[in-house]
Amino acid sequence: MPDSFPSPPGFSSVDEYLSSLAEFYLRPFVQSLAGELHIINFFLTSPDLFEDTLPEEWVKFFDQAEFDDVLDFLIYFRKSPSLEPPDSLSVFLSTVQSLSIDRNRSDKTIRSKPIPSLHTSALSVGMSPKKIHECEYLSSVISDVCSRIGTPHVIDLGSGKGYLSRTLAHEYNCSVVAVETVESRTKGAARLDSLYDRKGGKRKKAKAEMGTGSLIHVEKFVDSGDLTDIVEQANLIGHKMVLAGLHTCGNLSHHALKSLFDTQEVHAVAVVGCCYNLMTEKDSEDDVVGYPMSRKLQSYSIPLPTTARMLACQAPATWTRETRESFFTRHFYRALLQLIFHDRGLLGQVQNIGSLRKQWYSSFYTYCRGACKRAVGAYDADSDASSENPFDISEEVSTEYHDRLLSKKRRLCILWTLMACTVGPLTEALIHLDRYYFLKENGASEVHVSVVFDQVISARNLVVVGVKG
Ligand SMILES: C[S@@+](CC[C@H](N)C(=O)[O-])C[C@H]1O[C@@H](n2cnc3c(N)ncnc32)[C@H](O)[C@@H]1O
């Protein structure tokens, strides 16, 4: 079967697609959206990052148009009759569209006809509707790959609570080795295995077709593509295996793909990646883990800094009004707090804050309390008992900042949406092109990148399949 990549229409080859994408992505304006500007610093420039970054005619248009119409235009490229965007913006967005992978298109070279619904099966215990959908579709692809290379043996890398492993073992009778680094998840998976057995799931094995339908769990932190010790532990030296992964986060996807060449027993891989922000960028020639993996992408020297990789984790088309508002509030609060830190001379002393639990976002004052507990880092309040702790932000101060800058929240939301809708899909395409070329350059006999899930249900929906040459 010829290799396949879901390039957008109009390109005669994957090389041609990459070349056009790289040319656009490396333009200074796209580069500024992709990494040089940080939404967290929105209020640190004057008048703000929005005016600092965007062309004047875009600023004017974004400031005047209805907020919801602007979001519709950016996210779906849908134009309300009253909307009159500047031509330069329309051309920019249509170029992004023409370079983005169509995430709704399903490629027939990869089978995606799922098993009968898991909803009614004992296997669905503990699964969300999203997980059911993912397991239904990906297990079908993996069982096909198993049949093609003639093996029932699967390693499920980053198996979490073992939902995919259990589906493969009990619905397709594969022999699965589930590998997971977090102890509580492996234990949770074992509990779900027993629950499945108690619910009578085991009886299904009577129809055993492909293999023994077994499942073992291995607790291990994987840090390379050499999985020989796992194969050994499972007593499978010399057996053909398929390396599978459902949302192998960050570099785990890289280890998975490398296992095709670094582990003798692995004859095929089928992985869906996620959390690109956790990937690393190559820091030297000797770095065999980070992005870019392929010589092809290396030759283009396209940086993918954290901002770009974080944007690639977004899926604006699947945002609901509620999720959208929650993102916007998070970014607005974090940018406001950054301004307070700046005004208090604290920027160098702040620890990474990350995401807080939902209840901390009920007001900006509440957020300041939650975030400062994390941000305080090395600051030692006792050593400076004479003065006030600068990480104490009173309700009065937080309200003053919030109310003074609230009118700019709209600009911050529009800039974030613009970045997510443009840099996001293009970065995700580059990451998958890198994976595609890596497999080809190393001699895989077949490489396919394909849409495997409904994007509205599961946003990270591209599976990378490679078969050993
Ligand atoms: C996004 S979760 C997906 C879990 C599971 N496949 C699912 O879809 O329900 C990724 C899992 O990979 C595990 N993981 C991440 N890096 C790993 C590594 N280097 N070695 C082993 N497991 C890892 C995480 O602990 C986590 O459970």
UniProtKB/TrEMBL annotation:
Keywords: Methyltransferase, Transferase. This is Methyltransferase domain-containing protein. It comes from Lipomyces kononenkoae.
